[in-house]
Amino acid sequence: MSVFDWVIQLVYVLAASCFVLGLHLMNNPATARRGNQVSTSGMAVAVAATLAIIVHGHGITVTGWVVMIAGALIGGGAGMYAARTVQMTAMPQLVSMFNAVGGGAAALVAVHDYMHAGASVSASTSVTTLLDVIIGSVTFSGSIIAAGKLQGVINSAPVTFPGARVVNLGLAAVAVGLGAYLIASPSTALLIIVIVAALAFGISMVMPIGGADMPVVISLLNAFTGTAVAMAGFVIGNWALIIAGALVGASGGILTKLMADAMNRSIRNIIVGGFGTGDTAAAIAGPTGSVRSIAADDAAIQLAYASKVIIVPGYGLAAAQAQHEVAALADLLESRGIDVSYAIHPVAGRMPGHMNVLLAEANVPYPQLKEMDDVNPEFARTDVALVIGANDVTNPAARRPGTAISGMPILDVDQAKSIIVIKRSMGHGYAGIDNELYVDPKTSMYFADAKKALAEMTAAVKTLVG
Amino acid sequence: MPYPALLVDVTIFVLALWVGFEVISKVPATLHTPLMSAANSIHGIVLAGAMLIAVTANNAVGYVIAFVAAAFAAANVVGGYVVTGRMLKMFKKRPAMPAAGEAPAAVNAAANGSGRKGAAT
Predict the structure, then answer these.
(1) Less CB within 10 Å around the terminal CB: N or C of chain A?
(2) φ, ψ dihedrals at A364, nearest 5°
(3) Percent of chain A with pLDDT over 70
(4) How far apart are CA A245 and CA B25, in angstroms?
């Protein structure tokens, strides 16, 4: 091993260390920006080392340089444009597209390696090569479908047909079976069939999954991308890729588990499809009692004379684009010395942590954003819980066995002294069951669009307190 | 006795997975979206692999693959870091300015010690 190789390897280790340190610094919002910068430096160093390998090796043709630089410039430019212009509400689509291109690039690395090395590869290399091709292709097509569903280009309802499960299994069997065969006897034509089957499997895997399950799907595809990149590292023998891919795989895995738990679903259950397709939900008697509705003035009185208010935002808030209105109301209440915080359920939004970003964009300071486990004990000391566009995650029925959401972790909104719910109608949440919170005697309902309701409440508080 | 390359690779992979679980389980839910976009940029390291394709490519198919792979991976790297930086910039301890728009309410809290100086990403 030459000195040059030593230096390059050490630089790759440095880059991998930067990735770990960067992720470590993300354990606190105050240091997270530095973490991102550390991670960026690691990437810059890794790219520089790779350029050094290419220059040092002398093997590259002029066309090779042109192709590489043009590709990097065009891709980098597109990534920069998308990152600069994306709306915060559209963040899940963007992350999904980044998963797609990452998986696609990893698959292409393996495809090239396979075609180039041909029959000379050893069996152990071709196992990782084919895993990379299959996982990368599934991630690529699956992530594009997920992004399409999030963007509303593709029907976000579960799309399924009789025998879909058989088709799914068939495609997976073709990809894996042919892949295994290819390890013994390499063939480029068969490799293309493996790729097509894997791409088709990615599509048929995500199509039957409904919009409400997207936080789990994005996290899972993120884990797939990481795994595909790690496999690409095995293929080309690069430890930086292996370590980075493993880190991302771990991250996606953790988030997948957290999201699935927060939605009270097993990962298998989500992939196999369809929420509420069983009959269990229908058998449960709805809550009894009457619903009390409230006017802006009365809501304003409750809020203005409270000493502690917790706001419970759900996706309905983001859908109504009412983040800025809720922040304005919270500012007004805070200026009267009222303690205001936000209770964020893990699945409030379309991807992990989404609601926090939307509220941060509306200038809500992050110490006010409280996680479920931290905020739940506080509800009992809260005068008013203001629920905006959140449904199932506030339903006390989750604490009883025998409902569609039994066992799901919820926000203990019903323990607040009084509750105001802003909602368009009495419609059901994703679980398709009635929310017992709405008929609680302490609850008043404010039927309106979130944006309009919050503006009215803010105005009413202002006139009330002069 | 030197170990086979695959065994070394698997060892590194497994240990990195554990490091990942350990580090990432400490990231608060507040930052899970920036965490995912940061993960996007980190798996952009596949750019190194894409660049090396260009070295061995020697026919049209090879060049097309090298081009697409470089473009995909570069989009990951650049887009991931920029969008993560953009999001993290919004997380402030105290509102920097009285929220634009309505709310004339004088922000009660005294100093706005927010604005971390952030070198451009």
Answers:
(1) C
(2) -75, 125
(3) 94
(4) 17
* Cβ distance of A105 and B82 shorter than 8 Å: no
Residue A293 DSSP code: B
Give yes or no for B98 touching A (CB within 8 A).
Answer: yes
Helices (H), chain B: 5-24, 32-43, 46-56, 60-90
Same domain, A356 and A392: yes
Please state, rounded to an integer, the average pLDDT across all residues of chain A.
89
A154: Cβ contacts below 8 Å, ≥ 6 apart: A145, A148, A207
Residue A367 is encoded by which pair of tokens? 């110490």
Q: Is the residue at A22 inside a domain? A: yes
| Backbone torsions φ then ψ of B57, nearest 5 degrees | -60, 135
Q: What's at A60, amino acid-wise?
A: I
Distance separating alpha carbons of residues A56 and A255, to the nearest angstrom: 41
For A276, the token pair is 């509420």
**Interchain pair B99, A15: CB under 8 A:** no
The shortest CB-CB distance from B88 to any of A36, A51, A233 is to A36
Cα separation, A209 vs A224, whole angstroms:
17
Average pLDDT for residues A229-248, to the nearest whole number?
Answer: 95
Query: Which band of pLDDT confidence, cut at 50, 70 and 90, is reported for residue A278?
Result: very low
Task: Give the residue-averaged pLDDT of A41-61.
Answer: 92
> Shortest CA distance to A39 belongs to which of B30, B82, B71?
B82
Q: Residues B52, B54, B56, CA angle at the centre, nearest 5°?
A: 80
pLDDT in tens, B97-119: 544 444 444 333 333 334 334 33
Residue identified by tokens 């090796």 is A57
Domain ranges across chain B: 30-89
For residue A239, give the amino acid letter. W
Q: Which residues of B touch A32 (CB under 8 A)?
A: 31, 34, 88, 91
Position A317 in a domain: yes
CA-based nearest residue in chain A for residue B38: A36
Contact A329, B56 (CB under 8 A): no
Residue A360 domain flag: yes
pTM of full prediction above 0.80: yes
The residue segments making up the domain with residue A60 are: 1-85
- A32 interfaces chain B, CB cutoff of 8 Å: yes
Q: Which pLDDT tens digit goes with each residue over B19-54?
A: 999 999 999 999 999 999 999 999 999 999 999 998
CB pair distance less than 8 Å for A59 and B56 = yes
Q: How far is CA B82 from the centre of its chain?
A: 8
Residue B11 to residue B7: CA distance in whole angstroms: 6
Selecting from A15, A234, A371 the residue whose C-beta is nearest the C-beta of B9 gives A234
- ipTM associated with this complex: 0.89
Closest alpha carbon to A379 in A350, A332, A419, A349: A419
Same domain for A249 and A295, yes or no, is no
Q: Does the beta-carbon distance from B46 to A243 stay under 8 Å?
A: no
Question: Is A96 within 8 Å of A147 (Cβ atoms)?
Answer: yes
Length of chain B: 121
Contacts of A217 (CB under 8 A, 6+ apart): A142, A146, A206, A209, A270
The answer to the question of residue A237 being in a domain is yes
**pLDDT of A288 strictly over 80:** no
